[in-house]
Design brief:
The protein has about 500 residues and is an alpha/beta fold. It has 21 helices and 17 strands.
Length: about 500
């Protein structure tokens, strides 16, 4: 089997999903290969000959080798300005190199002028004409090199983001044409969300042999007739991935200690709307896997991918530190309101926690069932700051339970705690289509697509997306305290590289 991770996704670290699938196949002695076509494809495109028509692009092309080396050198991260120049120049080369194909390729995104990743007809069209995809010269040769006389009979694609969808289907279409006897399996986070939609009807029959919703280890093992009893989870295997190629200053080890969310009560949350169960890996097993992976890969940083790292796993880190710096999402909780506990987390290697605060208004938080008390949130921010742990705070604007008055309370909350906030992520709310709330509020779809996961809506108080955007651009972001935090954010890679800028 060949496991494939298609472009485009942030190329700072290897894909954890197919690494865990690879671990499952290895555990059952099933021959397979892994292809991170994302990092390989991006490097291929940016290194193609390019005649630049403007000064910036000419400079970016000339300096590409130096900029790629810089993004892999920790010294670059001692200067945010130097980093920004390097990453923006690399992104410029990608954009210029892909322009002729009618697509815009970037370090964290893929946009087509003609095709939409939320239209199944467009995905089928790109499968019918894969040669129109900017990555076609790369994957045509790469797949031929791997599959010729290999004995591989199954292609498995891991599709997690909309930015991967068009390239994934171009690769699927090419595989179907050039290797007609090949079985094609498609899974990943985006596919799972499609299949969880109540009105789901498979539009890819005849092109894709099997679609997989949720964790793919067991369905894949069953498909490949694995011998022996299948487990609930398997340790990821990164050994066959190009660990030196990723655009980070050393290897970042991605690890997930659970699927789903242990809180799982928030209104308007896709996890809640899709009814995804919370399934943690037992802490002793997780610690064993983490220690083994650290020994094998010698990472500079560990990225915990959980929707929220469980308190049990964080306590285990305090008792038995993993020995490398780590970061991830955590819930604002009573544990983090304890300064001594935060100091223990710091000693365990925690360099940054991502916190989904969403709002600085208690009424909004209560209506969203966030389970967050603002007094506790304030203590958590101050304690993490005192302990030396950076915070990456996520805010969400324009939910049906918020108006500009509540949003201004969020602005005030952040201003008063600006010294304890290292980074900010500002998002405008999208209504999940399959959530109960979408049935109760008048919808106003903002784009057409039978695969769309979100819908626009008529705000109960009239605070529409335009009004939210105007508030963010003209008021929120312009406040000096907010602007000083926002300028810390690494472009394109955002939280994936933020920990490298913490002093």
């Amino acid at each position: 089997m060949l496991l494939i991770y298609p472009p485009v996704a942030k190329p700072g670290e290897p894909p954890a999903g197919i690494a865990r699938l690879s671990g499952a196949l290895t555990a059952h002695s099933i021959p397979h290969q892994v292809l991170d076509a994302n990092i390989e494809g991006l490097l291929y495109i940016m290194k193609q000959p390019l005649t630049a028509s403007d000064t910036w692009t000419r400079r970016a092309v000339k300096n590409l080798p130096n900029n790629l080396a810089a993004l892999r050198d920790i010294r670059t991260y001692h200067s945010l300005d130097r980093y920004k120049r390097a990453v923006k120049d690399v992104d410029r080369v990608l954009a210029a190199s892909s322009k002729k194909s009618g697509a815009l390729v970037g370090l964290a995104d893929y946009q087509s002028q003609r095709l939409s990743p939320v239209q199944s007809a467009d995905l089928l069209a790109t499968a019918e004409h894969p040669e129109q995809n900017p990555f076609y010269p790369y994957f045509k040769k790469r797949l031929q090199d791997i599959l010729a006389n290999s004995g591989i009979r199954t292609l498995g694609f891991s599709l997690n983001y909309l930015s991967q969808a068009l390239s994934a289907f171009a690769m699927i279409g090419h595989g179907r044409k050039e290797f007609p006897g090949m079985k094609i399996v498609l899974g990943g986070g985006l596919v799972s969300s499609w299949m969880k939609h109540p009105g789901w009807k498979d539009p890819f029959r005849g092109l894709v042999d099997q679609l997989v919703a949720g964790p793919g280890e067991k369905p894949l093992l069953n498909l490949l007739n694995a011998s022996g009893k299948t487990q609930g989870s398997y340790a990821p295997d990164y050994e066959s991935m190009p660990l030196q190629d990723y655009l980070s200053p050393g290897f970042i080890l991605p690890y997930s200690g659970s699927t789903g969310c242990y809180w799982n009560k928030c209104s308007f949350c896709p996890e809640t709307a899709e009814d995804n169960p919370y399934v943690p890996i037992p802490v002793p097993q997780a610690m064993t896997e983490i220690n083994s992976l650290i020994e094998q890969t010698k990472p500079r940083l560990m990225h915990l991918l959980d929707n929220a790292i469980s308190p049990a796993l964080m306590r285990a880190f305090c008792e038995d530190p993993p020995g490398v710096p780590w970061y991830g999402f955590a819930r604002i909780s009573a544990e983090l309101a304890d300064l001594d506990y935060c100091i223990q987390l710091k000693r365990s290697g925690c360099v940054m926690l991502k916190l989904g605060l969403e709002s600085g208004d208690q009424g909004v938080l209560d209506k969203m069932q966030k389970g967050i008390d603002l007094e506790t949130a304030s203590r958590v921010l101050q304690n993490l700051h005192k302990a030396g742990i950076a915070t990456y705070v996520y805010l969400l604007f324009g939910t049906p339970v918020e108006t500009i008055a509540e949003a201004r309370k969020t602005l005030d909350f952040i201003i008063r705690r600006k010294d304890a906030i290292s980074f900010l992520n500002l998002a405008i709310f999208n209504m999940p289509l399959c959530g109960q709330e979408a049935e109760e509020i008048e919808q106003k779809p903002f784009y057409e697509g039978d695969l769309s996961l979100y819908t626009g809506f008529k705000h109960p108080q009239g605070w529409d997306r335009k009004g939210v955007r105007q508030f963010l651009d003209n008021e929120f972001k312009r406040h000096p305290a907010i602007a000083s935090i926002l300028k810390n954010d690494p472009p394109f890679f955002t939280s994936n590289h933020a920990a490298f800028f913490i002093r």
